[in-house]
Amino acid sequence: MDAMYIAVLFFWIPMSSIVLGLWVSFSSKQDSKIYFGRILTVISFLLVCISPWTAPLSPSSSIGHLIGFIVGPSILLLTGLYLITFSGNVPVGKLPYSDKRLGFICLFIGTIWFLMMQWGDLTPMYYGDELNKFWLIFFPTMLILLCSLSSVLSISMLVIGDNRQKESRFMAAISLFTLIIIICAMTIDGKNVSSNQFSDYLWLSVSDLLGISVGVSLSILIFGLVIYLYESNLEQPGSVNPPSKKELSLASIKISQNIGGEESE
């Protein structure tokens, strides 16, 4: 079979099925469809992760290779942040305080795992000797987003939140720690990734994220401007004539029938 058809069959169809499975599981109210969507998502995700073996000639399979490497530490980080956040001062869905310790453990293990992928022996190596190029894109982008979002959340909790000083300091600590990792990655070579490689892809990620931010902001601005111009050109709605005596009489009859009267059977 041709390499292109193999890539479509074993990578792109499973990748599309992940989105389809998530949509089915979240949009349906029937248990059978929810289970079907979840099973489809899991099976498709596994097929994407093993795409380096099922579609080895496709460059797209390196995405599945990277996903298989980062799924473990990513789950630990997300679980840790969830446990820490919802075991604090939250009004809805508060978890026991003991879960906060488990959250810090998950966060610590996930962080060390990612650091070992940058500086240790756990770097995603494609077929053992080739560095996965998508790792050079993913890791700087993740660090920039984490540093930016945590700093924004830290300020937002102080401005908008109520008694969220502790959580604000925690998010500020995450932002500072992420900034330290970025500086270290730009100055210290890893076992498989040099500091120059990281720096080059870091600035490319910054430019990409900046371009996306500017594009999204301009889109929102233009959309709001179009709505404003459209509504400003609409004619003022005409005034409604006051009710006539007949309409007032009919309204009073309906009100008297539904207020203070006997209940109808």
In short:
The protein is an all-alpha fold.
Strand content: under 5%
Q: Quick one: biggest sheet?
A: 2 strands, antiparallel
Which residues form runs of ≥5 with pLDDT under 50? none
Average pLDDT, all residues: 84
Tell me the total number of β-strands: 2
Instruction: Give the total of domains.
Output: 2
Helical element count? 9
Which structural class do you get from the secondary structure elements? mainly alpha
Q: What spatial form do the alpha-carbon principal axes imply?
A: extended
Strand order of the largest sheet: 1-2
Explained architecture:
- There is one protein chain.
- By secondary structure, the protein is mostly helical.
- The chain has 2 domains: 1-58; 66-220.
- It has helices at residues 3-27, 31-49, 51-54, 61-86, 98-119, 133-159, 165-187, 195-232, 245-258; strands at 125-126, 130-131.
- The chain has a two-stranded antiparallel sheet with strand order 1-2.
- A hairpin with a 3-residue loop joins strand 1 and strand 2.
- Helix 1 packs antiparallel against helix 2 (31-49) and helix 4 packs antiparallel against helix 5 (98-119).
- The longest helix is centred in the C-terminal third of the chain and has 38 residues, at 195-232.
